[in-house]
Structures are given as structure tokens and as C-alpha cells.
Specification:
Blueprint: H1 21-25, H2 28-31, E1 42-45, E2 49-52, E3 59-65, H3 77-83, E4 87-92, E5 98-104, H4 118-135, E6 139-145, E7 151-157, H5 158-178, H6 188-196, E8 203-208, H7 217-224, E9 229-236, H8 238-241, E10 246-251, E11 257-262, H9 275-282, E12 287-291, H10 296-308
Parallel strand pairs: 5-6, 5-8, 8-9, 9-12
Antiparallel strand pairs: 1-2, 3-4, 6-7, 10-11
């Protein structure tokens, strides 16, 4: 079990428990794998269809033969003179994407029964998305929520911004593991801080299991969704979805301890849509489930899909 206090974890710096800024920086190659300039600017459509975005921005996209209906202002003189045939230059959208990642490192996220803690899985997925954003010229920022003050990185561009984000994630996670307070504070404050970093039309991506988000969280999220594009990365541990039969000890943050019995008929919810994601989708807040045991190789295509709709 990957747990900061479990007997089988060994050192708190073991794989799946400790977050390394260097390892998070190393996810860059995985985030950009298979992405060519021809498919770099994407637009998400319903049904999981992804197409290239074309527009009249200032960034050149392609040169092709003239066809009826093309704007004469876009004729490419060099290609036309070289070939003697009319060519036009297409351009892609000018997109100043500002994205803030909200990583939940509160005590309830420091839990895991397979490969990694839920907090580690959330950070890995958000970093993969961050590398994609800055690789396409967008700006990336961070708010890491824990039991203490949130760690904040204002949106910036390029590798420098990702260096700040990965370093802040590693630092915030180490502080969360070392904290003695085991109660989850509401996510409201961190959500408000994250929203304050974004202009209207900006993008907020939340990586969390959404355990005990607070009584005002849903209302605040709905209000913010009128100004921002909000996406959820709902982190799930294998034990939550498929509990094996047996007796399991538990301890609550307020000091209560006991044992719970799980029968053989316990439901297996692998592959079953999460009711919370369905409820949020009805309010225009889309999301996806992230299985903590899967790992970055499995997260990369999920973040590619998410990137396409930001």
C-alpha cells in the first residue's frame, strides 16, 4: 500500500510517495510524444472527435493550391511565382491560452494502495498537461492546495514556467507529507486563489479526488464556470473501485479507529462512469477519471484529449 504512514512504504522518498521536480521535468518527452506541427493546434468536438483549428491568425500554418472561394489577400506570392500556379497561405488561430492547474495535496489525497498516492498521480497528470500547454505557446500557472497555505505560481510561458511549476509541486507535496494536521480544509480558498490568477475565458484544471471539498465548493465552482472554462481530473484509487473481501482497519482524522468488513459481493465500479462527473457535466464542467495505479504512460493520451478541449 502506498501510504505515507503505512508499514510497507519504507522511506517517504520511495517511488509513488515522494514527488521529484526532476522526474516531473522528465515527463516532457512523454507529453509531446506523437505530436507533430500538423496536429499541434487542436479543437475538441463532441463525441471525442478532434480536428485542426484553422483561422486568420498571424501564425502560418500551411501553403496549398488556390481553390475557388479563397481570399485573394492570402495568396502566397513566393510559391505562386516559383510554380506559376496560384497558392494561398493558411494561418491558425491566435490562441493565448492561460491555464491554471489546481493540485489537491490535502491529507485525504495522501492515500494509495497500488502504484502511487492519489496526490502523486494528480501531479503527474497535471504536469503532462502543463508541458503540452507551454509547448503550444500557452501560459501555465499552479495552485497547490494542502492543509496549510496554498503554494502559488502565476501563469507564465515556456520551460521556465514549467520549471517553476514542477519545483513548486515537489515542494508543496513534501510539505504536505510532513504536516501533522490530518484534517482536510475546504477547497474553496484554493479555488478562489486559482480563479484570481486567470482572465475571463481562462482555463482551470482541477486534479483531485474531491473528498470533503467543503459546503460552498459546488456553488463556487458553478459561479466560476460562468467566467472560466473548468475541467476536472478526478483521481481514483483501485481500492475505491474494487474492494477485496476481508476485514480492514481504519482511522479517521478525528482519532476514531475501528474495522470494517467488506463482503465478496462488493461492487466493482471499474469502467463505470463516476456519478460526480456526470453531475458536473450537466452543469457544463467536463471531466475525466484518472486511475492512480495506471501511471504517466496511460495518462499521456488522456491529457492529450483534455488539451484538445482547452
Amino acid at each position: 500500500m502506498a501510504s505515507p504512514s503505512g508499514p510497507s512504504t519504507g522511506s517517504a522518498h520511495g517511488p509513488g510517495i515522494h514527488l521529484s521536480g526532476e522526474a516531473l521535468m522528465g515527463l516532457r518527452h512523454l507529453a509531446r510524444r506523437g505530436v507533430s506541427p500538423a496536429t499541434r493546434t487542436l479543437a475538441g468536438l463532441p463525441g471525442g472527435i478532434v480536428t485542426r483549428r484553422r483561422g486568420r491568425g498571424s501564425e502560418p500554418d500551411d501553403v496549398r493550391l488556390w481553390s475557388e472561394g479563397d481570399d485573394r489577400r492570402h495568396i502566397d506570392r513566393n510559391a505562386t511565382a516559383r510554380t506559376g500556379i496560384l497558392h494561398v497561405r493558411t494561418h491558425h488561430d491566435e490562441r493565448d491560452r492561460a491555464v491554471v492547474l489546481l493540485a489537491d495535496f490535502r491529507p485525504s489525497m495522501l492515500f494509495g494502495t497500488r502504484r502511487a498516492l492519489r496526490s502523486v498521480a494528480a501531479a503527474e497528470a497535471l504536469v503532462l498537461l502543463g508541458w503540452r500547454i507551454v509547448g503550444d505557446g500557452g501560459r501555465i500557472g499552479l495552485v497547490a492546495a494542502s492543509s496549510g497555505e496554498p503554494v502559488v505560481v502565476r501563469p507564465g510561458g515556456g520551460e521556465r514556467a514549467m520549471t517553476a511549476v514542477t519545483g513548486a509541486l515537489a515542494m508543496a507535496h513534501a510539505q504536505a507529507l510532513a504536516a501533522s494536521d490530518r484534517m482536510d480544509p475546504p477547497l474553496d480558498r484554493s479555488l478562489t486563489v486559482a480563479a484570481s490568477l486567470l482572465p475571463s475565458g481562462g482555463h482551470l484544471v482541477i486534479g483531485s479526488a474531491l473528498d470533503a471539498p467543503g459546503p460552498e465548493f459546488d456553488h463556487l465552482l458553478t459561479v466560476l464556470a460562468e467566467r472560466l472554462s473548468i475541467r476536472l481530473v478526478l483521481v481514483s484509487d483501485a481500492f475505491e473501485r474494487r474492494k477485496p473481501a476481508g476485514f480492514f482497519p481504519f482511522a479517521t482524522p478525528d482519532g476514531q479507529r475501528g474495522t470494517v468488513q467488506v463482503g465478496r459481493s462488493a461492487a466493482n465500479t471499474d469502467g463505470v462512469p463516476d456519478d460526480r462527473l456526470i453531475a458536473y457535466a450537466r452543469r457544463g464542467i467536463e471531466g475525466l477519471r484518472l486511475d492512480a495505479e495506471a501511471g504517466p504512460e496511460a495518462y499521456a493520451p488522456l491529457m492529450e484529449r483534455l488539451d484538445a478541449v482547452l
